[in-house]
Amino acid sequence: MLRGLYSAGAGMITQQRRQEMLTNNLANIETPGYKADQASIRSFPNQLIQAMGTNHMQKFGTNVIGELSTGVYMQERTPNFRQGDLQETFNSTDIALLQGVVPTNEETGQQAALMFVIENSEGDLRYSRNGNFTVDGAGFLTTSQGNYVLDADGDRINVGNEDFIVRSNGEIIDANEQFIAQLDIALIADPDQLVKEGAGLLRYDGDNAIESAIDNAEATFQLQQGFLERANVDAAQTMTEMMSALRTFEANQRVLQAYDRSLERAVNDIGRLR
User: Fold this and answer.
1) Where in or outside the cell is it found (predicted)?
2) Strand locations in 58-130, DSSP E?
3) Residue 26 to residue 235: CA distance in whole angstroms
4) Given its phi and psi angles, is residue 61 left (phi above 0), alpha (psi -120 to 50 degrees) or beta?
5) If you count Cβ atoms within 10 Å of the first and of the last residue's Cβ in the chain, which end, N or C, has fewer?
């Protein structure tokens, strides 16, 4: 009976974490470049149930009754890097990254991801699909949180002011068509190793070397100035999944309450001396 309590409790915890993930996705539906998280739910290893002290099962050469499920858990949450829709903003500092053809891992079937390269406040490299950029007081192209956008040489990009042009291949030129810099685009072969850090930034924890998509024959992309990539959150699907998670949570809750009533009766009634 106690195993049933644990299984129902594990199911409730799993659905609670799934609900929190879906709520976060819905809260970021207006965040440019946001990638919705997906839950990977797994079951704990099943256990074999054996009959002890009985000859009935042993005469058939086994005393195994069957398997017992020990519950489920949310193994991980991974971003879905599907391309989001574009929204025109008419703002020269907004840049949308459209992913074209990219390599696919033959073993996992996972496609590589293209990202802007960002330098955070500690000077470390981070990656993002949020092209909601701005120009700081010193003329550098930065994110809305003040992190620097890097060029193909790994340097900060000084555009001077907002009067600049971004070509589809990532070249940045001024109003006089003078070359300023080549905006870097990272090609990440295993995007499942990217970890969200907030403010639209992702940290890479993988072991593979990150290549540049600039002049890379294996990857194609296009940049659109004056546009933003919207979050790839499907509001209707997310609401449906939230309702499903809530119903599953309530079902496990009823099972837990049933076990609780059975235990209460076992303690107070069956064990009572008359």
Assistant:
1) Bacterial flagellum basal body
2) 64-68, 72-79, 86-88, 95-99, 113-119, 125-128
3) 7
4) left
5) C
